[in-house]
Specification:
Blueprint: H1 9-21, E1 39-42, H2 45-48, H3 53-70, E2 73-76, H4 82-97, E3 114-115, H5 122-125, H6 134-164, H7 178-224, H8 245-248
Parallel strand pairs: 1-2
Antiparallel strand pairs: 2-3
């Protein structure tokens, strides 16, 4: 194996990339192959024929991208459609027994895919579909890449400055500014006068409210209390009895 030959991990990856993509492939520096034979199989292609064209296109491009990035092959197959099963068997024969590989790749999303490892390109796959125009997507992609590059270069210096940054005390003699300090003193004095006036006003309003409350309470108590003139007279009470039957005779 590769490990027994004393090859480092970067050398193994480089050898795997060359074996899959070739030495002159346009995407050689962009891909990241896993280094072992891998086939992505889209089974039940007969059922997928009923999908809308845009859905089929998005699925095909996504599978092609994942396969191309990882050094894998893509094939659509169906047990209900024998000609497509032959493509899958051909790929298995190539990886397992070093049999012949299909000469022509099929990348049309309206047809059953057959994309051997290393035969695709990112340019042919295209960008991921989005609601943005091509120009907007291009701008966003390049702005993001340059922003990340800028952060990577200058993040260390920014972090060091942030760690040294402390809060400035306005009363510190080191930061004296006569004009600024004078204006600050005037503002502080005005603020203190406003605070005193406000607290005085609030106190007067509270005292007035308490006085009105006491007056209203006294009036309510006087209205409910009975006077001496309306009180019932004291002394014995005379009760007049009804005449009896004997007196009537």
């Amino acid at each position: 194996g590769l490990s027994s030959r004393g090859l480092s991990i970067p050398e193994r990856i480089s050898n795997a990339t060359t074996r899959i993509y070739g030495a002159d492939h346009v995407d050689r520096e962009k891909v990241d192959p896993i280094g072992i034979p891998l086939i992505i199989v889209g089974a039940k292609y007969d059922a997928f024929l009923k999908a809308e064209a845009e859905s089929a296109k998005a699925m095909a491009r996504f599978l092609r991208f994942m396969a191309h990035m990882n050094g894998a092959a893509v094939v659509y197959t169906s047990k209900e459609m024998q000609p497509f099963s032959h493509n899958f068997v051909q790929l298995l024969n190539h990886y397992a027994f070093t049999g012949p590989m299909a000469k022509n790749a099929v990348t049309d999303h309206l047809k059953p895919l057959l994309v051997p490892a290393g035969s695709d390109t990112f340019q042919s796959i295209g960008r991921a579909p989005s609601n943005e125009s091509d120009i907007a997507a291009w701008r966003r992609e390049y702005i993001t890449s340059w922003k990340n590059a800028f952060i990577t270069v200058f993040s260390t210096a920014t972090t060091e400055k942030d760690e040294k940054r402390t809060l400035v005390n306005a009363a510190d003699p080191e930061f004296k500014e006569p004009l600024v300090d004078e204006a600050r003193a005037v503002k502080d004095k005005n603020l203190e006068l406003y605070r005193i006036e406000y607290e005085k006003k609030v106190g007067e309003e509270r005292a007035r409210a308490e006085r009105l409350t006491r007056e209203q309470l006294d009036k309510a108590t006087a209205a409910v209390r009975p006077s001496d003139r309306t009180s019932a007279p004291s002394g014995p009470r005379t009760v007049q009895r009804a005449p009896s039957k004997k007196m009537i005779r």
